[in-house]
Design goal:
FMN_Rdtase-like_dom, 6-stranded mixed beta sheet, oxidoreductase activity, 5 helices, Rossmann fold, alpha/beta, globular, 36% helix, NAD(P)H-dependent oxidoreductase, 21% strand, Flavoprotein-like_sf
């Protein structure tokens, strides 16, 4: 059974509506149609402390979220664009994931080898390519594998106030890229589960 975890990095806690949450949910729906068991967590609903340790103590919520991440085959980072960058919570997630960057299994491989990374980006200004590039590099450094076309995104026109969640219907290009992200991520996850990576020196 393939498992997917969406880590939603909107700055808005639940139950506030979120375009990042909506796009993440759409990716998970596509994954679900492919037989994947899916879960979503909204970082703003949890007390994830700043830092680069597995557990920052004093009620830090990251260890519990990390357990979910380690149990997943596919990890989707969903973020809005703020000032041309991923949200601060998305950066915090990457920083917390960095605590495991030097940890390896008994064959010298990073603990995240065999996991597939994917990205979902929303915003009202151009910048989805830049944001996805930042996240792709971070995920790659952390040991995740990326399938082709590993991002789905929507950006509105410059200086407009319309949000993705306020659209009357989902644009076909977004629907198609969301479906592609899901199909390719599942395909790669199955290949990695079957074959895996060789031992690292």
């Amino acid at each position: 059974m393939i498992r997917a975890l969406a880590i939603v990095c909107t700055l808005n806690p639940s139950p506030t509506r979120s375009s990042s949450q909506l796009l993440a949910d759409q990716v998970l729906a596509e994954l679900g149609d492919l037989g994947v068991t899916c879960e979503s967590v909204r970082v703003a609903d949890h007390d994830v402390r700043p830092g680069v340790a597995v557990d920052m103590g004093n009620g830090d919520a990251w260890p519990g979220l990390r357990d979910k991440l380690m149990a997943a085959d596919i990890v989707l980072l969903a973020t809005p664009i703020w000032l041309g960058h991923p949200s601060s919570l998305c950066q915090r997630v990457l920083e917390r994931m960095n605590a495991d960057i030097a940890e390896t299994d008994d064959q010298g491989r990073q603990l995240t080898y065999g996991k597939v990374g994917a990205v979902a980006v929303v915003g009202n200004e151009d910048g989805a390519h830049k944001v996805s590039a930042d996240l792709f590099q971070g995920l790659n450094d952390l040991g995740f594998s990326l399938a082709p076309n590993a991002v789905t995104y929507w950006v509105g026109e410059s200086q407009h106030t319309t949000d993705f969640q306020d659209l009357d219907e989902r644009p076909k290009a977004v629907a198609d890229s969301t479906r592609t992200v899901a199909i390719n991520a599942v395909h790669l996850a199955r290949l990695l589960r079957q074959y895996g990576y060789p031992p690292s020196p």
